[in-house]
Amino acid sequence: MPTFTDLYPFASHFITLDGHRYHYLDEGSGPVLLMLHGNPTWSFYYRELIKAFRGHYRIIVPDHMGCGFSDKPQAYDYRLANHIANVERLLDHLQVDHYTLVCHDWGGPIGFGVSVQRPERVDRLVVFNTTCLVTSHYPKRILICKVPLLGTLAIRGLNFFALTAVQLACCNRERMTPEVRAGYLKPYNSFANRIANQRFVQDIPLGPSHPSYATAKAVEAKLGVLKHKPMLICWGKKDFCFDDYFLAHWRQDFPHAQVHEFADAGHYVVEDAHERIIPLMRTFLA
């Protein structure tokens, strides 16, 4: 991609975690904004926010193991607890003692999983379409991908999950240019490299027997320790996954949050509405 460095003009950094390279961006200086992505995105999702804020903030954006430019080990325990631990280890490595959490999709339970353990480190919270609610309220098209053989064929074999996301998650189609589309798909270009895409889907805990159920319930139970932190919610109303059901729970758990709904934005709300989100974040962070 000759234009990729124009879209993603950032220096890569790596740390080694349990023998695997863990990729992250570390741009700018000042108060820390910790940006955590979901599935099947990667740090590329936050590129416009990074460029907008790195002049006054230190922006730290890891790629979860198996995602983006991080290693994609085939024999690895891709569980919520490990993703949380990886972010904690990165923060310790970078000696970050205060940060504002910015999260989307799986970045929500991972980021809040980090934050509820040491809430004194958290200055503010910026939430894009995500949840920390343990529920089965997800679209059938996602839940059916949890079926082992079908999920392997669809997600890893046919790249169904990532391809569907670039087609449906962004409502303003003119923004999903061939270059942007290729950027989202860049790390997930083979059966082996799509392992985390499938493992994240498999890690959605629907009941007590699931390996990540206890971890997810613990995060959900501890959200109250962050209740009085300033929170900004920017919500894409046309999200096919995180709909008004999830937004209502955020309003219930964080009644003092500033909520901005974007009627013309979907799951990739930052892609759809970054030029409107950036000034809201500037005011909120100031």
Structure commentary:
The chain has helices at residues 4-7, 47-53, 80-93, 107-115, 140-143, 148-157, 160-168, 178-185, 195-202, 213-221, 244-253, 269-285, and strands at residues 12-17, 20-27, 32-36, 58-62, 99-105, 122-130, 231-236, 258-262. The chain is of the alpha/beta class. The chain has one domain (10-285): Rossmann fold (3-Layer(aba) Sandwich). Strands 1-2-4-3-5-6-7-8 form an 8-stranded mixed beta sheet, sandwiched between helices. Helix 2 (47-53) packs parallel to helix 12, helix 3 (80-93) packs across helix 4 (107-115) and helix 6 (148-157) packs antiparallel against helix 9. The model has no long low-confidence stretch (mean pLDDT 96).
Number of strands: 8
CATH topology: Rossmann fold
Count the helices. How many? 12
CATH superfamily: Alpha/Beta hydrolase fold, catalytic domain
Q: Which percent range fits the helix content?
A: 25-40%
Number of domains: 1
Order of helices and strands: HEEEHEHEHEHHHHHHEHEH
The Cα radius of gyration reads 17 Å
Overall SS class: alpha/beta
Mean pLDDT: 96
Low-confidence parts, pLDDT < 50 over ≥5 residues?
none
- Biggest sheet features: 8 strands, mixed
The largest sheet has its strands arranged as 1-2-4-3-5-6-7-8
CATH architecture annotation:
3-Layer(aba) Sandwich
Q: CA-to-CA gap between the ends? A: 37 Å
The share of residues in extended strands comes to 15-25%
- What is the C-level CATH assignment? Alpha Beta
- What sort of overall outline do the alpha carbons produce when their principal axes are compared? globular
